[in-house]
Amino acid sequence: MKVWITKYALSQGILEAEGTQTETPTMIRVRGKNTDLSVYDSYFHKPYWHLSPVDAAEHAKHLVDKKLASLIKQEKKLKKLRRQFDNVTEPVDKCPVCNSDDVRQLPMGGWECRKCDAGITTTP
């Protein structure tokens, strides 16, 4: 029977192949010579094979929507991470006020002398 495979819809598109149903009703076997996937037999579970191209296209749209949502979520995470890098300043070796080398970096950027409590800011 003719089937449309959506397992690789985001990388190779919807594939059309000849398949036979296995003893499990939700699984199908596609011979290796019938598709561009492999020379070996491939097995697909139900959400990733369809009997009509319309159903396959609907499932592929669903996969695209899920991938876009994932990319938006990842973009938000990366932008939040990038904001943390904005507070990084050049390291300070010595306090410009008392010339002490006992300085530490503050969590929100800048530096502080532990000896004279002078606040030190640097520009990148």
Structure overview:
The model has no long low-confidence stretch (mean pLDDT 85). The chain folds into 2 domains: 71 residues, no CATH class; 37 residues. The strands form 2 sheets. The chain has a 5-stranded antiparallel sheet. A 3-stranded antiparallel sheet has the order 6-7-8, with no helix packed on it. The chain is 27% helix and 23% strand.
The biggest sheet amounts to: 5 strands, antiparallel
What is the percentage of strand-forming residues? 15-25%
The outline comes out as rod-shaped
Sheet with the most strands: spatial strand order: 4-3-2-1-5
Calculate the mean pLDDT score and round it: 85
Helix content: 25-40%
Number of DSSP-assigned strands: 8
Low-pLDDT windows of residues: none
* Structural domain tally: 2
Computed over alpha carbons, the radius of gyration is 29 Å
Order of helices and strands: EEEEEHEEE
Classification by helices and strands: alpha+beta
Count of alpha/pi helices: 1
Spatial separation of the terminal alpha carbons: 66 Å
